[in-house]
Amino acid sequence: MLMLNYLWRLLATAFSFATFGAGGLFLSCLVFPAILFLTKDKKIRRERIRFVISRSFGFFFKMMVFLGLFRLTIIGEELVKSDKGCLIISNHPSLVDVISLISLYPNSCCIVKKELWRNPFLGGVVSAAGYIRNDQVETILEQCKTSIDQGEVIIIFPEGTRTIVGKEMILQRGAAHIALRLNCPIRTIQIRVNPTTLTKAEPWYSIPTKRAEFVVEIKDILDVSGLLDKKMPISLAARKLTRLIKENIDADYA
C-alpha cells in the first residue's frame, strides 16, 4: 500500500509539472494576448492579467492538494484582505512557495530572477504581469515605489533562492532597504513544509515517502517607521530590520 501511494504521488508530481508548463504556455499564447488586445488601459490590463495568474495558481495548488501531494493549512488568511501598499516577505523552502502566495494576493507584484524572462513556460507570464526583474538595479526602487503608491503588494523572498535544507538561512538586505527607503510596512509570512520536498537540492522526482504538510502562516505587520532615525545610517537600520525579518520567517531561528 505504501509503495502504491508513493508511485501515485510520483506520477501526480510529473503530471503537475507538465500541467504547469502547459498552463504557462496557454496563458502566454492565448489568454494574455486577448487581454492585451481587449484592454486599452495599462493599469487595468495589468490587474486583469495578475488576477488570471492568481486564480490559475490557486487552481493549480488545489489540484496538487486533491492529487495527494500536499495537505494545505493557511493560518491568518483573514489578514490578507487588509494588505495594501506593503511588502510581503517570506522564506522559501519549496519550489511552489510563490504559487501559494500569488494565489492569496490577486494583484501582487513580484521581484523575480532575471532567468525567468528566458523561461519558455514562464517568460510570457512574468512579462505580461509586469513583475520586476531583480537585475534592474538602477530602476528597481522606482518600480517598487510606483507599485506601492498604487496600493499593490510586492512579494519578495529575501534569501534570493530556495532555502538549502540543513544550512542557516542567510537573508539579503535588499528587501529591508526597499522598505526603509519607501517607508512601507512589511507583512511577514512563514512557510513550513514537512517533510521537505521540491527544495533547491532535490530534483522534482525526489519526493518524500509521505504526503507533505504545507503550512502558510501569515504573521503580523512590521512597522519600519521606528527604524527611520536620521542619526542611524540606513545600512545599520537595514541590518536591524533584516534580523527582525529573520526572526519572523525562520522557523529554526534562535
Verbal overview:
Helices cover 44% and strands 17% of the residues. It is α/β, with parallel strands linked by helices and 254 residues long. A 7-stranded mixed beta sheet has the order 1-7-6-2-5-3-4, sandwiched between helices. Helix 4 (123-128) links the parallel strand 3 and strand 4 (132-133). Helix 1 (2-38) runs antiparallel to helix 2, helix 2 (42-66) packs across helix 3 and helix 6 crosses helix 7. It starts with a helix and ends in a 5-residue tail after the last helix. The model has no long low-confidence stretch (mean pLDDT 90).
User: What overall form do the CA principal axes indicate?
Assistant: globular
For the termini, the CA-CA separation is 40 Å
- Assembly of the depicted chains: single chain
How many helices in DSSP terms?
A: 7
The biggest beta sheet is recorded as: 7 strands, mixed
Number of DSSP E strands = 7
The SS-based structural class is alpha/beta
Overall pLDDT confidence? 90
Q: What share of the residues lie within helices?
A: 40-55%
Question: How large is the share of residues in beta strands?
Answer: 15-25%
Please trace the helix and strand order, writing H or E for each element: HHEEHEHEHEHEEH
Give me the side-by-side strand order of the main sheet: 1-7-6-2-5-3-4
The whole-angstrom Rg is: 19 Å
